[in-house]
Amino acid sequence: MSMFPSALDELIEKFASLPGVGLKSAQRLAFHILSLPEEEARSFAAAIVKARETVHTCKICQNLTDSDECAICRSPTRDGDVVCVVASPKDVAAMERAREYNGRYHVLHGVISPLNHIGPDDIRIRELVDRVAEGGIREVIMAMNPDTEGETTAKYISRLLKPFGVKVTRLAYGIPVGASLEFADDATLMRALEGRQEI
Questions:
Q1: 3-class state of residue 123 by DSSP
Q2: Looking at the structure, do residues 92 and 144 belong to the same domain, yes or no?
Q3: pLDDT tens across 4-50, in order?
Q4: Fewest C-beta in 10 Å: which of 5, 11, 146, 157?
């Protein structure tokens, strides 16, 4: 039997269903929402509803937007010949923080993961192939996480794009800046050696 009213239990449950939010954090969030003035609580709820109703995927790159095309696809200063393929919209934000990449993106909204019953048809691979088939793209950069699912997805897409004659590359993996060699695992050291550059 719960010590909280059913509406509060339901709110805690909803917060606890979010990724990375445990029961104690969910309770803190729920109590915080209840402590807000009514106008702020309504504004918070309205922001959730508005985001859910207006945010959708860009018709070109599948990133999140509230118009037909996202700001990156609309930008005349971005290089449309190069497309960086990422697993999620969060990855676009990470790449943009680096301020080094000036091409466009394609967001898959997941990676191939047989253990989680996610196959190629469950993510936005077909849209990428269609984009490349239209022409005008000379390089596709695979920027998925360097794990089994990311590597599997990158190799699968690479095979699909081969007939189109585009250059398919992947991000270099290796020793992070500021890290110590003694703590690097074998796979990381191998990737670092493969991706070495002349200085």
A1: coil
A2: yes
A3: 889 999 999 999 999 999 999 999 999 999 999 999 999 999 999 99
A4: 5
pLDDT of 129-186, one tens digit each? 999 999 999 999 999 888 889 999 999 999 999 999 999 998 877 767 776 667 777 7
By the 8 A CB rule, do 161 and 139 touch?
A: no
Encoded amino acid at 176, one letter? P
Distance CA 155, CA 168 (A): 10
**Token pair belonging to 28:** 């803190």
**Domain tally, the chain:** 2
Strand partners, 83: 104, 140
**CA neighbor of 168 nearest in space, from 111, 114, 106:** 106
Rounded CA separation 117/104 (Å):
29
Please tell me whether the overall predicted TM-score, pTM, comes out greater than 0.70 for this model.
Answer: yes
